[in-house]
Design brief:
The structure is a homotrimer.
Chain A: E1 2-7, E2 13-16, H1 18-28, E3 33-38, E4 44-50, H2 54-67, H3 81-90, E5 93-99, E6 102-103, E7 109-115, E8 121-130
Antiparallel strand pairs in A: 1-8, 2-7, 3-5, 3-8, 4-7, 5-6
């Protein structure tokens, strides 16, 4: 298990961690298998989406902030209830396939850490199972 | 594969199953690997979120019931279409890492069965792969 | 790793790929383990939900198109920003358990490719780890 460090700079943000995940896969020495990216935070998430046009990331954060508003009569007193809800909708882990030592990604796919309550220092664990 | 039994008591509810999942991991005897929690129900889900302040769970269920209302002109005649939709948004499985025989969880993370069409008797399977 | 080909016929659609995933599991020769279904597209997803009443699929697509509208002031110029958002909410992979050579599915569960920007030719990879 390898741990990635991530520094986010906005309240809501998608940070491209594809290269860091690929490095962890390379470090594992595993050529064929499955890679799991897991974040131990309850107001963040991990997702896979387009890494070519940055406007896609902008649209994702804009729209999710509209669907799950920052303020909506929540009970949780820390003021970040919306971030917890977004975390469960996006999910705190992603699963990727590994082939010939590399992540099996579509042409436009990248791996992103989703910040929903930043800016903060965040982490994600990467684990690879051979097979 | 071990199966967890869950009794839910409300129409929408997040039930903390962390201890049961950890027990299944311990029973497996696997010290390092990946743990999969899978529920075979189409109106429930599995998620990872904060287990410290119960108001987080309350906010999650309140908000998701607002975003996906119980009644919204659905076609499905059983009256639980909203529960099916929520199940796909949260996902019927969760992936966790296992280190030194324990689940790798963040300080505030717990594993929850999400009931969207209760109360009912529910199940979740736990499988651990070594590696 | 085996690759499934999928032809979608609508802009938004859930296509049942359960039999194709099961065939890939059978082809792997693995009797006990975990099966991963991964789609390399950023405007599609993979989900598990009811495969008995087709109205459930209809309700899922109707409601997600209402929650994440096709037009909502998005920045992405290709006109499919909504599809990218839906992809991250549903997730581009699904995890299933394998027991006695078969997918461990609930009575009503099937595996679906989610088309959010069709019609198109799509693919999903299936990988099985023994254990």
């Amino acid at each position: 298990m390898e741990t990635i460090e991530i520094r986010t700079s906005s309240r809501t943000e998608l940070v491209d961690i594809t290269a860091k995940v690929q490095k962890a896969v390379s470090d594992s020495g595993i050529r064929e298998g499955v890679c799991f990216v897991y974040t131990p935070h309850t107001t963040g998430a991990v997702t896979i989406n387009e890494n070519a046009d940055p406007s896609v990331r902008k649209d994702i954060t804009m729209e999710i902030n509209k669907v799950i508003p920052f303020e909506d009569g929540y009970s949780h007193l820390e003021g970040n209830a919306a971030a917890h809800i977004k975390s469960s909708l996006f999910g705190c882990s992603a699963t990727l396939l590994v082939d010939k030592g590399g992540l099996v990604l579509g042409t436009w796919q990248g791996v992103f850490f989703c910040e929903f309550d930043g800016p903060r220092n965040r982490r994600a664990h990467v684990k690879v199972l051979p097979g």
